[in-house]
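ok here's LVIVD repeat-containing protein, seq below lol
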Amino acid sequence: MLQPGLKRRLTRVFVAGAAVAALGASSAFAAPAVIAEPSATTIPGVDEIVHSPNLRSIANIPQQGPFTKDSTGTDIAFTKGHAIIGTYDGFNVYDVRNPYRPKIVSQVLCPGGQNDVSISGDLLFLSTDASRSDNSCASVAKPASDKTAWEGIKIFDISNLAAPKYVAAVETDCGSHTNTLVPDKRGKDVYIYVSSYAPAANLPDCQPPHDKLSIVKVPLKDPAKASLVATPVLFPDGGNAGGDNPDGTRRSATTGCHDLTALPEKDLMAGACMGDGVLIDISDRLKPRVLNRVQDNVNFAFWHSATFNNDATKIVFTDELGGGGMATCLEKFGSTRGANGIYEITGRGDNRKLEFRSYYKIPRLQSETENCVAHNGSLIPVPGKDIMVQSWYQGGVSVWDFTDSKKPKEIAYWERGPLSTEKLVGGGTWSAYWYNGHIFSSDIVKGLDVLDLNDWRTFPAKFVRQNQFNAQTQYKLHPGFNN
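and the structure came out like this:
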């Protein structure tokens, strides 16, 4: 997800590309003609689609209604055969039970960037990481230097997906860039772990050092009583101090976390915390304990997100070099910058450690006008295999196998050509997740894409069905799994 400063700047840049989305209506349409299997150095034309033979587009719904012109598409959560996709101006609810003909069910205008979403039952949690005049959906932008400005978590009742209702909001320090849902062990409450960062001395509600996260407790029977219940410090020593990497790019200092991914069944959480990759024990939901921390002060610039494998023996961390606003899929950056880092979890109990195994980066070069870097993805539930689908902004969607931690390999891909050949125009796929047999991608400019993966290596995943799916709250998956 885009870093503060970059995210606000890029919101304006995205306007030019979003004009293409206005051409669509509310129904899905077939993908245009494609060129399959280009070489690693071939750059497709503007909006031209290229893909491997085993991955194809089956539907697209452009941004429309209140989100047509300049709304940046963000993250996705799923419930009851519906995909809910955040935008910087609110969120869209899509019925995807027929993936060939997805349709918009409702649109909620609620500005506040970046509006990442997670779902628990009939509740939706929306992250606000842009200072606003108040916590309502009618708020306007307000400087974060103003003490009265608001940022945090909003809660909606989505029992009627056609008419979501605003329920409550909880303010958190430095806002909520992303959020991670963790159920309590009694089943009566859920906890929302809020990731936020980038403090500054002139921001009254975001003071340095901010080496913590915020935990919001939501009573499931009375979500209006949600409240901030803990602010545990993860980095009492301050974490990574930041600095320059060997190639001259800047390495981020640790000030909180960008993204947290929970594995509640194992009482584990993985933190991508700007300058640190972290393995966390959450057996006590309000007192998370750091088990192990790793740094990569040669190749990683910004630890962005994390994904466990199905057996909780590995974690894939992403490096969002350039904050999502740079063209880093270029020869000069090589295969280890702006890439994934694959780590294995060794040892037991409090002696568990993260051990580096390899990097993975898409094998196709992109142009100077395409923002491209490792971004959000999820596991594809294949027994005995570690296979992931992942977004790379304008690098497109990549499906790759890391069963052999030291030799990851791509098995499928799909991407559009650049939005412009004259200048860098931000766009591409923000999140790509597997849900109920298909890949769903939230494109920053182009809206919802639905892809069909037809490959013998992932065929068993076609039979997995889930009622609810949050990429940042993982559960062990297997054929026939239903939650």
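fwiw The first strand starts at residue 34 and ends at 36. kinda neat tbh
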